[in-house]
Amino acid sequence: MTKHVLLNNIDHQDTRVIHYFGPEFGDNLHSALVFPTEFTELQKEYPILLRKDDPQGAYQAIALLGFAAAENLYLNNQHATGWDALYIPASIEKGPFLIGFQRSGALQDEKPDAVVHIDMAHPKVSSAQGQQLFLAQGGNSPYLEHISARLDTIHQGSVLAPVFYKALEQLELVEAVTIEFTLCTSEKVRLTGNYCINEQRLATLPAEALVQLQQSGFLPLVYAMVFSMSNIRHLIDRKNNSLRQ
Question: Rounded to two decimals, what is the model's pTM?
Answer without folding.
Answer: 0.93
